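As described in the Methods, two query proteins were run sequentially through the folding procedure within a single session, without resetting any intermediate state between them. The first query and its resulting C-alpha cells are shown here.
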Amino acid sequence: MAAEKMRVEEEINATSASSLHQPLDETALIQELVAQFLAHDGYVETARAFGDEVRAESRALQNGQDSRFKDLGAEEDLDAVNRQRIRAAILDGEVDKALKHTNAYYSQVLQDKPQIYFRLRCRKFIEMIRRCSELHTSSSEKRGISMNGHSSDIYDDVFEHDMELDDQVNSSDDWDQMETEEADISMKYQNLLQETLEYGQELQLEFREDGRREVKKALEETFSLLAYEDPKTSVVAHLLEPSGRVPVAEELNSAILVSLGKSSSAAIERLYQQTETLIHDISEDGGAGAFINVRSDFLT
C-alpha cells in the first residue's frame, strides 16, 4: 500500500502544470496565485513586496528582462487597503471601527447582506463581554495582591520591630497605590458592564421580531454568556475566543468583493476546493485518489 501511494505521488510530481494557464509556466502560475491571494485578502504591502521580489529575481535570471508579473491597479490598490482596514479592525475586536469603515467605503454591502450585519452586531456584544471578563479578572487579581500585601505589613509590624521608618512610609504608599488602581479597575468594570447590558437590550430589541432560526439560535447562545460570573470558564467560553473573529472578517471581505464584481474567494482557494472534489471523485471504488490526502500530503 505504501509503495502504491509513493507511485501515485511520483506521478503527480512528474506532471507538468505549464499548460494550465498559458503562457505562464508552473513557477509563474504559482507566483500569480500567491500574489492574487495576498491582494484578495487585502495584504497590500505584502503583495507589493512579493511582486518586487519576483521581478528582481526574474531580471537576475533573464539578463535584465522584466517578468510578466502584474501590479495591482490604483483602484484595486485602494480597495485592498480599505478591505484590509476593515478586516484588521474585526480581527482586533474593534467591531465599531469595522462598521464605520464599511459604511464609509461600501455602504450598500450591509444593506444587501443583513446576515453579516447581524453577525457583526453579535460579535460586538461578545467583544464587550470579553472585555468585561478581562477587567473582572484583573480586578480580582489586584484585590488578591492588595490583601497579600496588607497581611505582610501586619506580619512585619509584629515581628520586624527594627523596620526603618522610610520603609514603613513606602509600604503605606504602595498600599494606597494598589487601592487606587483597584478602585479604578472596578469603576471601569462597572461602567463597561452597564454599557454591555444596554447594548444587549438594544440588540435584543432590534432582532426580537426576526423569525429566522439561525438568528434566534445565535442570540440565545450569545446571551447565555451573561449567565456566568466568569464566562471564560463556562461551557460557552469558546464564543470569546479571538479565533471567532476570523469567519466574521472573511464573510464581510467576501461580500465586499462580490459587491465590486469580483470573486468571493481567492483563485488558490478555488483551486484547492476543486482538487479536493476531484480527488474524492477518483477515489471512489478504490481508485488512485484513495491514496492521496491534499491537506496532509501537500499542505502540511
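Immediately afterward, the second query was submitted; its sequence and C-alpha cells are:
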Amino acid sequence: MRIFDFGRMLFALFIFTSFSSAWPWPPSVPEIDGLIHRRADPTSASDTSPAETGNAKSADTGDAAKTAAGSGSAAASKGAAQTGSGATKAAKTGTQKTKAAATKTSAVDPRLPPGAVNMITPSAIAQPSYYKVQDHVTFAWNYTSLSVKPARIDAFVSCAANSATYTLLNNATFEPTATYVWDTQPEASGTAPLLTETYTLVIHDASQDLTAVPVAGHLGKYDQFYFGMYIPQPYTGLSGKFSPVVLELSHSDY
C-alpha cells in the first residue's frame, strides 16, 4: 500500500514538472537577455532619460546657434571691411578724377597768343608822353589774352642810357587792373639819377625770367611802352645863350 502511494506521488511530480517546463513565462517577468544587456551597458541610449536627451539637444542647438552667430559676425565684419575698402578706393578714384579734370581744365590751347598788357594811362595809342623829373607819373594797365593768371607781378622802368632800373612793383599780388603812381623825386627814384632820356615800362610775371619764351595764354614780358623824362632848365632871358633840349623817342635806343 505504501509502495503504491509513493508511486502515485512520483507520477504526479513527473506530470507537474513536464507541465511546468512546457508552459510559457508570463509577460510580466522580464526576459533574462534583457536583464543581462541592461546590466552590461548601463550607459546605453535606451537607459538615457528624456530629460538628459532634451539637455543634450539644447546644448547642441546652443552650440549651433553660437557657431551661426560667430559666422554671421565674421561675415558682417568682412563685409564691412570690404565696404570700407571699397569706399576708400572710390574716394581715391574720385580724387584722381578730380586731379585729372583740374589738369585738363588748366591746359591751354597752344594756338592761343601769349597774355599781354594793355596800357590805360597813358594810352598806348596817344602821342608820346614826356614827364618832368620830380613830378608824379601815373601808370594804369590791364591784361589781355590771359588764360592763366599769374600770382605775382613785377613792374619797373628801365633806361638804356645809364643801364639803370627803377622798381615800381616787386612781387605784387596780381590785380586785373593795376594802377601805380611813380614819384620821380631824386631821393625816391633810386640810386641812379634820372636823366633827360627815353625810358621803357616793363611788366612781367614775377615767377618767370625776363628771358623766358612767351607761352600761349600766360603773361609774357611786356616792354612796348616808351616815354620821355626831362630835367627842367633854369629860365634864361633872350639876351643870354639858350640851347633847347630836344627829345626824340626811338626804338633804336634799346
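The radius of gyration is 59 Å. We note this only descriptively and draw no conclusion about the first query from it.
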